[in-house]
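I'd like us to work through together how a protein chain folds, taking it slowly. To get us started, please write out a protein record for me. Label the sequence line and the structure token line clearly, so we can match residues to local backbone shapes. Once you have written the record down, we can walk along the chain together.
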Amino acid sequence: MYRHTVHYNTFPDEIHAPTAENIGDGFPTICSSVITGDALNVLSRLPSETVHTVVTSPPYWSLRDYGGMSAQIGLEDDPDEYVASLVEVFDEVRRVLRNDGSL
């Protein structure tokens, strides 16, 4: 999850979800940003309860080295450290995810 892309979408406040009433002839406007960086660092800078959806595929422990990055999740010395790294990231995911959001 190190150096992964965080795609951050926000809907205008008046649109809660696409419905027949608010779509009209098209889809609601989505303000979108793509932020590349360390997932934990990026997530920690996002406001709480603002993310609608999180899609992720964390690396498996000790399976592969993505090269050039010393702080990669999955390269910890033991599985307990790996799980602790995932918990740290997903604590931030939970913080930024809206109450009606999905993971």
Observations:
- The CA atoms of residues 7 and 34 lie 4 Å apart.
- The longest strand covers residues 4-10.
